[in-house]
Amino acid sequence: MSLINAKNSDPGNDPPELVRAFLAWLDSERGYSPATLRAYATDLREFEGFLQTLELSLSRHGDVERDHVRGLLARLHLRGVKKSTVSRKLSSIRAFFRYLDMRGLLDNDPTSGMGNPKQERRTPRALNVDQTKSVMEAPTPPDASGLRDHALVELLYGAGLRVSEALALDVDEVDPGAGVIRVHGKGSKQRLVPIGATSAKRLRAWIRHRHELLVDPMEPALFLGDRGGRLHRRQAHRIVARLARDAGLPESVHPHTLRGSFASHLLQAGADLRDVQELLGHERISTTQRYTSLDLRHVMGVYDRAHPLSGDGSLQQREPTSGNDPSWPGHDELDQESTDSEGE
């Protein structure tokens, strides 16, 4: 599917040429991922459809006023669209008009001065150490696909990668013996990420048997799908969910849950916040700081279970709890990071 032809859009509603040029610029100049480009295309097609109900169009961008942008946001609000989604759509529209201004095609920016809706502060989701270990050790088929599945989850947790970063890796870019891998992150930014001995061992095992799933010898992808091409995001989600289910975890687990667990466990072990920011590839440390709430939850849980004066304040003997205690992080219903743009 073309990045411009967004899902569920009217096939007869071709996007204006300026929108096509904007998306091509995001692709070639900004290096945005296919998922991010699809999100921009979807948002701009929806705005174009809204404008057409008013006999307007982005092709006549000079006629678009602030009230038209507000009209779309009001309609989204009435439909009960989440604030995070509304904010993303406004950001897409704002970026389009800034692109026009950069090209000298804009006299008046209708999004100027418009702030995004106030966001609910979401806590990233994470598993505790025992739960994470159970996912890593969940049974897999004794074949190449099983080796692939174990290597994938080890890399998602062991290196804290976004699923898009793991799936974008090429086999000739990865040397398990080096102890580090070069990751292509958001906006084509690169970073070096260390990998542990277990991750390296499972990567080597998968690479040795990768040819068993390979169909085209020229396919460069590290992780292959069952049909021999680059592993798709949806299949990666299914792999993680299946391993978590087979490990006996009651809640749904996603690739980003493993990334959140990576960050949470590092902070619990005393890692510096700036170092975790670098490992995760976050541009803003405020994004990384959200994982400190998981660390605090862990500390408070330990206190509540262990200190004799916690709880009702009475001195009492407490029974030791296991890693499967529902009060541990990972058993609570926490918001899952959005996968439209691969989360944080």
TrEMBL record:
Polar residues bias spans: 313-325
Main location: cytoplasm
Keywords annotated in UniProt: Cell cycle, Cell division, Chromosome partition, Cytoplasm, DNA integration, DNA recombination, DNA-binding
Tagged with keyword Nucleotide-binding: no
UniProt subcellular location: Cytoplasm
PROSITE patterns in alphabetical order: CB (PS51900), TYR_RECOMBINASE (PS51898)
GO cellular component: cytoplasm
Top-rank lineage group of the source organism: Bacteria
Assembly with partners or alone: Forms a cyclic heterotetrameric complex composed of two molecules of XerC and two molecules of XerD.
Function: Site-specific tyrosine recombinase, which acts by catalyzing the cutting and rejoining of the recombining DNA molecules. The XerC-XerD complex is essential to convert dimers of the bacterial chromosome into monomers to permit their segregation at cell division. It also contributes to the segregational stability of plasmids.
Protein name: Tyrosine recombinase XerC
Source species of the chain: Paucidesulfovibrio gracilis DSM 16080
